[in-house]
Design goal:
Blueprint lengths: L10 H40 L5 H39 L3 H20 L3 H13 L1 H13 L16 H16 L9 E7 L6 E6 L2 H21 L13 H12 L7 E6 L3 H4 L2 H7 L5 H8 L3 E3 L2 E3 L12 H9 L2 H8 L12 E4 L2 E6 L2 H15 L1
Parallel strand pairs: 1-4
Antiparallel strand pairs: 1-2, 3-7, 4-5, 6-7
Length: 381
């Protein structure tokens, strides 16, 4: 969280406010001109009637001018409404109190942590519902989408949010979606490929539409406190306040001792994101609306105009995918610990430290390493 974060007025915002100002000036000029012409026409009518020169032809001319004036006045009022709408959307986004928004989000998340710790699932889901309906949380979800890496990358619908007006409309659209979660339909993902590390191998990404990313973001706000509370103690990947440096420090602390374990199993789960079982995620993900999660998992992928159904896995590229990966892998540490208890107060030397789908398992001898390798393989089936 960065409580001092503030979105400055971009060039596009200044442009929209400039347009709104010009439209407003145009309305003022047109409105004044039209009223003056109508007054002139009324004075003309009065004078003609006084001079008894008001005949049928003059009446028709007067009626035409009056109709034209009313039409221009209607157009001017429409211009005025547009100018006010543009100005309101731009200023409304920049008038959001981000400090208050973050405080509102943190307050609800703290209550979710307490409910999770006390195993009060009914209260937990009520709090999640409260969070996703909260205006501050919806605004923060949209902000997360536009400030993330790839915030200007379109999904299959080709839409990119570029202006404060777009951001404000996204908040309102998000409100409509979360109010009717059972009617939500996620759009297919757009398949793109990026280089994998320093190799020639390409990593597939699935890019959701911007509105689907916003939906993922707000539900992630509701899910993350639960997952964080229940995560393995020595898991360091994709967790708030943890990093690769923390994982390195934990490994160094473990091995930098006279009695440190002599053997290490290094494990990298191949295609972890692509092989996660959907039924497992639907059963174990602490989300108040399972239908929304199912829509993300089953949305499919669009690759070069070919639609590919997604029967397993959670695509890399979605905001919530790393958390779903942690949900699938949480429990490895407790399983390994239970299978390798201390004997007569003497440690087996078995420890596990994980960063996302990469991990190490230590042991005092090769037999323990091979034993735990098989336990890990059975867990991942």
């Amino acid at each position: 969280m960065n409580p001092g974060f503030k979105l400055e007025k971009s060039t596009e915002t200044v442009k929209y406010l400039g347009i709104a100002k010009k439209l407003n000036n145009l309305w003022v000029e047109q409105n004044f001109s039209i009223k003056r012409q109508k007054n002139n026409l009324n004075n003309m009518k009065i004078n003609m009637m006084k001079n008894k020169q008001f005949n049928v032809n003059l009446a028709l001319v007067y009626t035409k001018f009056l109709t034209l004036g009313n039409r221009l006045l209607t157009d001017a009022i429409q211009v005025r409404r547009i100018s006010l709408d543009v100005k309101q959307n731009a200023e409304s986004w920049h008038n959001i109190d981000w400090r208050k928004a973050e405080k509102d989000l943190n307050d609800i998340q703290e209550k979710i942590v307490i409910a999770t710790s006390n195993d009060k699932n009914k209260e937990l889901y009520k709090l999640q519902w409260k969070l996703i309906e909260n205006f501050s949380c919806r605004a923060l979800a949209v902000r997360k989408v536009i400030t993330n890496t790839g915030g200007k990358t379109a999904g299959t619908d080709g839409i990119v949010w570029k202006s404060p007006k777009d951001y404000w409309q996204a908040i309102n659209r998000l409100k409509e979606i979360v109010e009717l979660p059972n009617e939500y339909k996620a759009q297919p993902l757009r398949r793109v490929y990026i280089p994998k590390g320093n190799t020639k191998e390409m990593r597939p990404l699935g890019i959701p539409t911007m509105i689907d990313r916003a939906v993922q973001a707000i539900y992630h706000f509701a899910i993350d406190p639960v997952v964080e509370t229940k995560s393995d103690p020595n898991s360091f990947g994709f967790r708030k306040g943890r990093s690769t440096h923390d994982a390195i420090t934990a490994i160094r602390s473990l091995l930098d001792k006279r009695t440190h374990p002599k053997w290490i199993l290094e494990a990298d789960i191949s295609k972890c994101f692509d092989k996660i079982n959907h039924d497992f995620l639907l059963k174990h993900t602490p989300i108040c609306h399972k239908n929304v999660l199912k829509e993300w998992l089953k949305s499919g992928v669009l690759e070069e105009l070919n639609f590919i159904e997604t029967e397993e896995g959670t695509p890399q590229g979605g905001i919530i995918s790393p958390t779903l990966c942690n949900i699938a892998l949480n429990g490895i540490e407790s399983l390994i610990r239970d299978k390798n208890p201390n004997r007569k107060g003497i440690s087996s030397g078995v420890h596990i430290i994980r960063y996302a789908d990469d991990m190490i398992i230590t042991g005092k001898n090769p037999e323990l390493i091979l034993k735990n390798k098989q336990i890990l393989a059975d867990f991942l089936k």
